Amino acid sequence: MLGVVLAFHAWSGPSDAMLVPRIVLTLWSGVALAITLVELSRVTGTGSWPLSTLPVLMGAVLIAAIAVASLGFLLASLPLVALTLWLFRLHRPLPMALGTLVIAGGLWFLFHHVLLIRLPTLLTSGAL
């Protein structure tokens, strides 16, 4: 354990900008896998299979992540945000539409204009 701490201390920093997001994504995926395993163990014990929001949301995130390459970030994130709001029991149409546009558009604006992280785009002009 001490060797790992010393190795991190002696390390001069990331070699590229994607190292820290990859570490966070790995940790996030590990936590999601652990939660899924706990949910599956509870289902196995009861014998019934209720549709939990976690597997639905995880599947939607996977589909959106794959769709980003061809649709761009903004168009791929709109259905994902709408589904997330629906799963969090926001069923009224106007607040869900406004929330979807504000959250997905706000994330795009934050990454693209504030943090200057260029996200995948649908159009070559970078409009989306």
**Parts with pLDDT < 50 across at least 5 consecutive residues:** none
Helix percentage range: over 70%
Structural class: mainly alpha
Tally of DSSP β-strands: 0
Number of helices: 5
H and E string = HHHHH
Kindly report the average pLDDT value: 77
Provide the β-strand percentage band. under 5%
Please state the CA-atom Rg, rounded to the nearest Å: 19 Å
Main sheet characteristics: none
N/C terminus separation: 46 Å
Envelope shape: flat
Protein described:
It holds the Pfam family TctB. This is DUF1468 domain-containing protein. Keywords: Membrane, Transmembrane, Transmembrane helix. It is a single chain. The longest helix is centred in the first third of the chain and has 28 residues, at about 20-45. This protein has helices at about 1-10, 20-45, 55-70, 75-85, 95-115. It is flat and about 45 Å long. The model has no long low-confidence stretch (mean pLDDT about 75). Helix content is about 75%, strand content about 0%. The chain is mainly α and about 130 residues long.
